[in-house]
Each structure stands twice: as structure tokens, then as C-alpha cells.
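Late entry, evening session. Most of the bench is empty. Finally got around to the prediction I had been postponing all week. Sequence below, unchanged from the version circulated by S.P.
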Amino acid sequence: MLNKSKILSINAQFSSDISKKYGLYAGVGYYRQRMAARYLKEYTFVHAGKELLVPKDDLQKVIPELVKNANLVHTQRIDNPHTIVALLGACDFYNVPLIVDLDDHVFTTDGLAHDKHTYEDTDHKHYLEILLKEATALTVSTPPLVEEYKEYNPNIYLVPNAVDPKDWTWPLRHHTRPTVGWAGTMAHIVDHQVLEPVYAGVVSEHPDVVFSFVGHMLPDHIKGIQRSNWEIKPGISWWEGNPDSDMTYPRLLSLLGYDIGVAPLIGSQYNNARSLAKWFEYTMAGIPTVASAWGPYLDLASGTDVLLAQTTEQWVEHINHLFKNKHERDAIVDNARERIAREFTIDHTLPEWRSVFAKHLGYGFPK
């Protein structure tokens, strides 16, 4: 029996104690690496990440040990210059192809900040640009990212995000009050400004409404809502792998019990390159989505897959309408799930992942 090719899959890790202990990974690692690895049985995947949460001097020892036994390295975007230098050197020395995956537009120039998820003119940007130029190839999740990053490396492949229905088996537990929910990361706190003028119009028709936030929201991010009309729940970053808890992100979203999920986006370069992941997640949890008529959501059919809003008045109208029409909430979820099954499950993207890996295995580094 032939030995399987070994792919070293480097997941970005949070530097929390629990991540350091167990190597837990967040949504990007799930969508861009872990999900495909479950099904590409022709390869042996070695997942790493927590091993790199070490002092910079140790990286020169740790990274070569990880790379030398691999046939290919597939890594998420790396921010640490010391890690980048060590990884490029190890892949060069051992002649191992290096594929870098990107799921965000981090070199935005429109001045609309998305916190630490974009770069200004810093050493981190400089070294990331070197990584992209020296990599054997790049994989990205959306067409705008192809346009953004192809100038750094012509060997670039579009592999869209998808979902694995097997992760979404938890029943939706409805909230006791009408609830609008938003699960948002730090990169999307700036998008909250879309919702601020919406609250009053929703509360006027539904005085007992709850705006439920999960993730990185803080009380000082929320303006214009009485305390009785909002709640903040702590988020979790992992999808699997915590031996101390059976709570996963899909289960958490189902337990929150949203009647409506909102996906606000300001008009920015960063958001124009986003994927449909938020819509995937709400839909698979059984939650209908109201989203900004911007970026990736323009590919969806408003009124069928989602309700799209361009103005404050449309946001208020859509949310109040869905509260009054449960049958329409259910219809949107059913239609959206059918579309996901037709176009956006892991079965649809496995051929692309398989092709990228097969093309570059054995070709060495550099190009």
C-alpha cells in the first residue's frame, strides 16, 4: 500500500489559554482547512497551530520540525514576521510546496477600518507581502480576493466557502421574546453602525423585542437601546476539539434562539470581499436572514433566500414584517437551505481542494 502524501495544515490560533492547551481553531480554520480535510482521505493531514504560540526564538526549531516530514504545507494567513521567515526558510530548505490561504481583504485602502483584520503600512504588512510573493500558490474564498491578491502571486485559486450539513444537527431553541440576533467578530464591530438607527423603529412596534449579540460586542458599542431590549452573550471561537465541553459554535447559535438573524455590512472594500458564511450559519441553524444589500449578499435572491435592505426604513420594515409572519420566516429558511444544498455544501468544493493539492504536490519550493 502506497504511503499517503502528508499535508501540514497550519491553522491560525488565538492566544487564549484554552487555545494554547488544545489548539482550538476558529471559523476560518473550519471553512478553509478542517472541513475539506475530513473528506480528502487520499491525504494525511497534520494540523498545527498551538505549536507556534511560542517565543520567537523557538520558532526556528519548531517550524522546521513540522515542515521536514510534510509533502505540502497549507497555511492560513500569518501575521507574525518571525513565523513567516521561519516558514519560508523551512519550506525552501526541505523543498516543500507552500500554499497560503486568505479569506479576508487585508490590504484595504478606503480608510474604513475593520480593526486588526486590516493592515496599515507596517512590518506585518511587509512580511505578509513577502509571504504571498514567495509562496508556491495562494487559495482564496471569493472573486474579489482573486483580483486583490493576483498581483502578488499569479498562481491563485478560487475555492469558495461551503458548509458541512453534518455540523448543523441541533434544533433551534426559540427565545421567549421576539429576538433579533447578530453573531459578529471584531472585524465587524464597525458594521454595527448600520443597525443603530434601526432599533427605534423595531422597538416601536415590538416593545418587548430583544437584540441579542454574541461575540465581541461590548455595552459601549450599543447605542440607543434601553437595557431591557438587549443582551450580550459571550462567543466561542471553536467548532470542534474542546475535550472539556461539547459546546460548539453551531450548537451555540442554535441555542441562542434567534427569530431573525441580521447581517449588516457597511460599504467597504473589506466587506465587498466577504463570503456568504454568515448567511450559511443562520440558515443552517434555522434562522432567516436580513442582510445589507451589499457585497456577497447581492448574489442571493431577496424575498426567497434572504431579505435585503438598502435603507434604515427597509431594515425596519423587513424585521417587523418577519416578526408578524412566522410562515415567511420558515419559508425563507427552507428556500435558503435548498439553495445551500444545491450550490454551497462541501461536496461542491472538494473537487477544487483536491485539484489544488494534487497539482502542487511534488513540485517543490520555490516556484
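Two things to note before I forget:
The radius of gyration is 21 Å.
The chain has a mean pLDDT of 91.
Will write this up properly tomorrow.
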